[in-house]
What we know:
Helix content: 25-40%
Structural class: alpha/beta
Number of domains: 1
Number of helices: 9
Low-confidence stretches: none
Amino acid sequence: MEQIxxxxxxxxxxxxxxxxxxxxxxxxxxxPSGIVAAYxxxxxxxxxxxxxxxxxxxxxxxxxxMMFNDIVVQEEAIPIIQELEVAYxxxxxxxxxxxxxxxxxxxxxxxxxxxATIFNCYSVEDVVFQNEAVAGxxxxxxxxxxxxxxxxxxxxxAKAVLEGTGHDCEVARxxxxxxxxxxxxxxxxxxxxxxxxxxxxxxxxVENTKEIYPGLFVSGMAANGVSGSFRMGPIFxxxxxxxxxxxxxxxxxxxx
Length: 256
């Protein structure tokens, strides 16, 4: 029985990995914007692989605010919440309150149910750069990167890459630094995140969701970090709408 268990896991995992060596969209970071984008892309029939370095994808949504595991979503994002069948209750001034654990679990379930594949415990350490465009991601085990071990990575080819890494904008920084290219920002580089402003942060998260270099899109806090806008704290409507917008932009590009 011991060997049967191990064989089943190994055979299944490597088949899954082989199926995803070439995808329509590779998503870096499993926060709410990345998971929502994965849901809409998979729902549209695209082959989507999401890579997250943590054991449990979901980004900062799990913890709510200061480990008070509730989150806020504003009116504009409720159609997405309803489509994903997340339970909510009405708050004040056009806001809605949701249990963060329930919401994060629902997003992950819906994305994978739609057909997206999530790889946890992966770090994306670089991109594939071909013909002056981003053409895939370079992946390794997250513990390998954390321990600083010299272990060469593998590559995942993709028609489009979505960065949803959050505050650090790691993929965008790598693309600009290693290839000497200008990003679609006011400085041509990662501008950097500003301090907290809930209203402007929520608004600009969606506005800054865009293609910042051929083949590379940004969503969520990475979108604001790249373009130099504000963080917004434990309100997540902008994240959800950013993920949906990113999916729409990517679909328009790869379907053209």
